[in-house]
Specification:
Layout: H1 7-10, E1 12-17, H2 21-30, E2 35-41, E3 55-57, H3 60-66, E4 70-73, H4 76-89, E5 94-96, H5 105-117, E6 122-124, H6 132-139, E7 143-152, H7 162-165, E8 175-181, H8 182-188, H9 194-202, E9 210-215, E10 222-230, E11 233-241, E12 243-244, E13 247-251, H10 252-269
Length: 270
Amino acid sequence: MAPPSTRAERSVTLALIGFGAIGASLWQRLKDSHAAIRWALLPRGSARHLPEGLTPLVDTEALIAANPQLVVECAGHGGLREHGPTILKAGIPLIIVSVGALADDGLRTALDEAAAAGNTRYTTIAGAIGGLDALAAARLAGLERVVYIGRKPPLAWRGTPAEQQCALDEIKEARTIFSGSAREAALTYPKNANVTAAVALAGLGFDATRVEMVADPEADGNMHEIVAEGAFGRLRFEISNRPMPDNPKTSWLAALSAEQAVRILVAQLE
């Protein structure tokens, strides 16, 4: 009789694209699980320090040669655009954290075609929102209206186009800094609109989903709201997220959503 397999033999090997707040969270929280994160693809010349046991990679070819069983993208729109199609075409499944990048129809088509060519698939995460299962179910009966409202403290909008609209540190009452479609929001606010994109993909799509982004001094953390109406009735979902303990710009639930997606796929691959 063959000896029972060890934990290492049962592990599913993973590579990360990027190693920011979400990548670091995945490494820390999954290091004792069956998800063996062994590589991180970083930009050339990056001075990012990686923990012991995590090997840096400098290009897509090196990642493919390492032969991970699963790749998690957490590097932003540019990272997904540069590496995603090639990884999928090589037959490696991909988890996409930067969901807002899919507002680019050309990129989305490239990912779809690459996944088909590689006989694999990509998965998007819900991120810092919930209720998407109900929204997707409601779509089957016909949705008439979907609105997403994102509300954050003014200084949480630093580093975004909102800085060109107003002095964020002088806002005394709630102010709408963006109103438009989910596509416009995802492309204009690439670091803030992954939730917007997740809502769009579950419901009416990027052009029919309406978005409002608000800088609100009274906001208790990062607040997300979905309102949907259709033949099914009316849905309203609201959540208030706490930031990650070591990175206030990232909602903790977004990192946990990525972790949950990894755990689910790892269990399927074991």
